[in-house]
What does this fold into?
Amino acid sequence: MSCANARVEGTALRLPMNMEWRNRIRATVRGFTLVEMLVVIAVISLLASMIFPVTKAVNRNKIRRRSMAELAVIKIAIDSYKTKLGHYPPDNPDDPRRNQLMYELLGTTLNNGTYTTLDGSETIRQIDLPNAIGPKVTGLINSVPAGGSDEGRAAGKFLPDLKATFVGVITNAGATAKILMSSIPWPDATTAPLGSGTQNPFRYNSSNPIHNTGTYDLWVDVMIDGRTNRISNWSDQPTVVYLPGT
It folds into this structure.
């Protein structure tokens, strides 16, 4: 490019824009009017009102499905226990929230007064059972001495390996025991099923079932949108209850 051309091009670049182009740019970059802003806000509010209920419904269904799946795992284990041993696991007749179901379904060996689950994950002293769980719970049925049973009977393991969220801890009179727990915590400590905290136990009643006469009642309560939903083995669908508890 020659020096002359460069000067011509440079001169062209410095020429002022005509009025038509200025008007076009101004029209392009102008701001929103108040009416346009209000319309945008209204549209966003409308979309939010449509999305939020859907999100809440998805969360409700997620909690229900998870609770039903966990209950199904326990139910299968209980039924397998019955098939092998000829009876359902014993319960705590005084309180379905505090029960020995986890130990019974995992199977244990008894050595020097201490029960150890077959998978080695949990232990509990026999003398702690009445204090931690209930005075009528003095031993475990699905258990054999550490050296083996004289009758050649073996304890059975009916539950799969448990996640930490599936196991809770109860303490009473200085004794501690483990129980099967929902992975959905209880949101309000003032109405907690165990009196405090957020632990949410599975309830079990085989000594005097109300809904499944002759077998057992198994259930858990979960809070959804401020309402107590009961997931149970006597209903295919969650039921809303107004007095959660045992």
